[in-house]
Amino acid sequence: MGWTVEALHQMIEDARADAERSHTRLRQDYDSVEGRVTALELGSPAHALALQRLEGKLNAVEDQLRGGVQVSALRFTPAMLVAIVAVCLAVVSSALWLKTGVDEIASQMHYQAHLIDGIQRMQNLNQVEIEKLLSTRGTQP
Question: DSSP states of 28-44 as a string?
Answer without folding.
Answer: HHHHHHHHHHHHHHHHH
